Fold each of these.
Amino acid sequence: MCGAKAGGPELAGVDVASETIIQGSVTRDGEPVNGYVRLLDEGGEFTAEVPTSATGQFRFFAAPGTWTLRALVPGASVDRKVVAQQGAFTEVAIAV
Amino acid sequence: MSRSDVLVDADWVQAHLDDPKVVIVEVDEDTSAYDKNHIRNAVRIDWRKDLQDPVRRDFVDQAGFEKLLSEKGIANDDTVVLYGGNNNWFASYAYWYFKLYGHESVKLLDGGRKKWELDSRDLVAEVPERPATEYRAKAQDTSIRAFRDDVVAAIGSANLVDVRSPDEFSGRLLAPAHLPQEQSQRPGHVPSARNIPWSKNANDDGTFKSDEELKALYEAEGVDLSQDTIAYCRIGERSALTWFVLHELLDQSSVRNYDGSWTEYGSLVGVPIELGSGK
């Protein structure tokens, strides 16, 4: 696998209308990074965590509101704040 | 029991990769993670296919567990070291399972797969071959397993620790946020349960906090550790991690994991449910 795919994973088979999706990719110098992404709620409390895919992508099924994404990769940790809405998917590109 | 009896760090595992009496076992929520790569000489246990009854909702029985461990080449006197993704959720669940069926020496790799990866340690694709054994399991130790009636009876009397995220506890989410939210059960939590998310037990890299920090966490949340405690989550894997903290690290004698957890409780007819943050 080489090169990062822009945006999150394919949405085929996902009921986008009823879910609140936050997804995206983690890259370093444009290349996908193997690591983890944590989803923290408005109070900074852990809600979920996923490993990034081979193409650096991740996805969460959240609830509407403000969330923080924290990318953990060897030697670095990067936070990004996002606002999610039901029926729409929020795309986040995180460069570390 | 002390921390060093039940928890090992990555250096310890690295030093025991070729130890014939140490079996390293990967247990992941994403059961395909092992196919991609794993710690050298580690075998896989699939928490869904290997540990659950294929038809009804329950564990494999004693004979099933014996068959599984025999096939995996695990002997009664082997030291089993479990690790996995998701901050060891499913590795903790398997740990609890090994204890349920009476395995003597079982340990968790502190931080699991994530810490190993963040340390940039080696992972390989080769699958080891272990000769089959004749494993003998003990009868289930139900002193560490809670059933639904135990949970209903514990409302307002024993410690109920709901280890899900605050959004699942309050009823805002029905599942961890990396899973689709459409579920059949009612949202909320068991009345009188305290919400102490499993994540408060661990650092960002997945390693457990110190015994002092853990003790302070439960005391600050008003859990009287001298009382009986039942931990639950959605399907019993995150609460197995909290069970590990309370029973194995903090050495509390009466701690049970409710493996039916919210997917059972939230589907029961007529039981009380509370919504909101509970504070």
Amino acid sequence: MATRGYLNLVLHAHLPYVFEADERDHLEERWFYEALTESYLPLLNSLYRLAGERVPFCLTLSVSPTLLAMLANPVMAGRFDDYLDRLIQLAGSECHRTRHDEHFNRLAHFYLERFRSLQFAYRVKYRRDLPGALARLHEKGHLELITTCATHGYLPLMKTREAVRMQLATGIKAFTSRLGFTPRGIWLPECGYFPGLDEVLSETGLRYSFVDAHGLRNAFPAPQNDVYAPVRTETGVAFFARDPETSAQVWSVESGYPGDSDYREYYRDIGFDLDETYLQRYLPYDVRVNTGIKYYRVTGKGNHKELYSPERALRRAREHAANFHFNRTKQLEHLAAIQRQPPVVTAMYDAELFGHWWFEGPDFIEEVFRLTAEHAGSFALTVPSRYLDEHGPAETVSLYHSSWGEGGYSRVWLNPANDWLYSRYHQAESSLVAYDAARRKNGSEKRICKLAATELLLAQSSDWAFMIYTGTTAEFARQRALRHLENFSCLEEMLEKGEVDLEFLNNLENRVAGLFPDMDERFAPGPAFELPRSFTTPFVLMLSWEYPPQVMGGLSRHVDDLSQALTKAGQPVSVLTSLGEGSSPFEMNGLVSVYRVAPYQQAGQEIDFYKWVIQLNLVLYNLAQKIVPANHYTVIHAHDWLVAPAALALCKTYQLPLVATIHATEFGRNNGLHTPLQHLIHSHEQQLVQEADRIICCSQFMAREVRRLFDTQPGKISVIENGVRPDKVSAPELTGPDRRRYAGDDEELLFFVGRLVKEKGVEVLLAALAQVFAVRQKVRAVIAGKGPLLHELEEQAGRYGIRERIMFTGFLTDEERNRLLATADLVIFPSLYEPFGIVALEAMAAGAPVIVSDVGGMSEVVEHGADGWKVPPGNPAALSVAILMLLDDRKLRLQLGNSARYKVIDAYSWDELAVKTLLLYQDVWQQAKKISYF
Amino acid sequence: MPGHKRLVSALQLMVQTPGDLFVYWEVSREFLKIARIGLRDSSAQMVLLLYREESGQTEQAALVPLDQDLFYGSHYFSRQKPWKTYYAELSLSYKGAFFTLLRSNRVLTPPVELGSGEEKPSVPVQWQDVTPKLPFAYSPEEERGDT
């Protein structure tokens, strides 16, 4: 039969988890028993009555996981039995008390019969299994049962995707475990939606959900059918929107049905009207509570109330149902005429409205269904999945932030009364992501993680923020939220300290037993580094301002090579460094876990370099705080002053020993301290050297310099040279057109590579080349590298008249550099200050004949005349003589190159240096912890 | 008052309504010490900034000077624009410039009564990156065999 459209009635049933295992007559548990007595059982009775009479009907019912858990809780079932017994006794007593007043007595008997009938239904008809009763209606097609988030957490105000996913996934899992089937749709708590939520809904396999009317009306592009057809987002999840008309007819305080004068007055309960002494015989509380026995009707807006008449109220409910049915008929008639897609009116309500707040509500719904069946040609009832199967969503839109709360957004859950909750929620979210249970091999730790997740879920219940805002039971809500957050903190502390309080765990588990059956322990499945083998020793955390692919100088390569060698030797390493172009925030580099983060502002544009370094330290420190607690680090290793502030702060925060490598000093680079910035950097170096537990220097030269400059204790400094990986520098020499890019076939080639800064002595090299080129025609030079002196050096070359014979290449890739090292006739390092000279070592590893300044670390590495040639620093004349002499002696050059290569392979292998470093870590660790570790 | 022992400094921006945003921040002592020691300018004042991204440009939407270094605090920004992307910064203001201590997440305020021709914000709101975990991290309990 063709239909003019559909009515999609959606009820959402939810209560916060109020079960208290150890407290038999807990006051807030009454909310559950009241809702059962006044809403859920009467609604269920109405639906079963219709089903029994074979009246066709269907509606959607969302039941929250916390409510499902309480419905299935055997202890609460027993307590509800007692609750009903007491109500029946009270009603019986009322029958006796009012025996002389015909009107009140009639009502007392009405309640007595009602409670007895509800008790019979609960015990006999449904066998105390309401989830089962609902599932049977679902199987028969009368109900589309769905659920909501685990504890009804308000999703738009959560910080992490993981927290959102945890609420959704735990809720779905709990529902599925209890009812035996997976829900097709979900009720978003408070209809709270935000951009990106649909992706998570899609991931969890959900087909549809709901938003408030303005949530759809403000979609982009604007929906063609207003709120009268579902839409989908790019992820394919469909959304139905609340119809404002049906909403106002029921929810409106001024004009809604429940405010009718014939309906039962909620606020005139004998629990508040009668003598406390009389009531205390039946109610085990110290305070007055609602009993559900109410004798008055709404009557009017004032305080005067007339006696309630159930028959009159029922007639009224039926009239309102007829009115509702008539309005839907006309509404859908109109919509069917103006829109192509069959219209669907989605009427969304809290289930508790029907019966608890609006006593006659279940009768109203029952009558609406009867009328719909009777007037089948007017419109049809539907449920979301049926509508989607038959008609599909109308169009694809983007949805934005909305809710069905007061104001339409998040004001109810985020305002000065309750905004303090969120920093605590978010901290717990971040912690939980770190303490993922799935990673834990230890049974106790898994147990703690799952409990912590449960406590966070319970803390996140939107009910607490709501109650605090409205002021109803605000203190209870505040205490609940705080209690769960405190429990979470205690559990977190247990994880960190490894001290398990079994009694505490047992108590918590007792409280939440059965709440989330089969809880998925992968509730925080964020990205994890995959390591191909298991390390059995704790991690070393290395801080370095640069790391490949960010390469400014030798430090980057040093950290890369050292960390690789350490992991090869069985010592796991994490590197924290800066994020630049071409790099990713997290990656595995072999077995080294690399974390990168970028300062907020750009050096040179928004802030100067020094402030950029400080900002880098801030973000490194913050990043480290996310990973240190979740993994086991035992030593922090800082490289140079550039990461000193973060390293020192981390050591203090986590009480970890600090090893610092001093690659160079500001004093040495500048041959003194001449500017305020240089003094500032020097002070950072001083603090690092003084506060570190051990210092590593790459050469005896550097060790002496550090001792002299910073007055370091003897024995604090260890010399561990830089190493080199010959495989990283070997390459075939350039030939043919490749070589001719740099020099003619009959021309000799000289090569420098390094940063173009004062201390590398490139000015000295240019002066020497001027002398060389004056006497030797067929020779050219390549100067590779970048730095602040590039332009100045080019001008100097021009002044010498040798610009044409020098190529300034700028930055070279490793491959280009290696090929030049293999090709050059001489590789020259005219440094004025050189702590070690890693680039020179690399040239030697490549088998290149090198000329080096007799300075710093290079002087220690090169044996003059055996594996290289040394010249006095800053002496162009001596350098030019050496160049010319070696260019004339090919045999000597070959001999130097070969000897250099063998020396480096033998004495500067990273495997050996890694072992030395490991021994140093062990020593530092033993000193710090006074235990034998390895 | 944050109760966590080891605080990860954070600045979090949240949407209250299309025209109202809420921000809270928490800064640990060690974190602020790094910044203060590094800057060495005791006159640098802590400020809260709100930025709005519109038509590919970023403009300052609000500036709130804070009287002193506040390790934690919150603020409501009112009268902001719907359907725009925002982020906040907690900074130190010195000599007319700002040094950023923390930058918040980006949020998109919801639209209100979209008219025709409205330009959809092109910048998506992003989830915060989750730092990966190391799956085989050593645990003392494992070493002792307490599994």
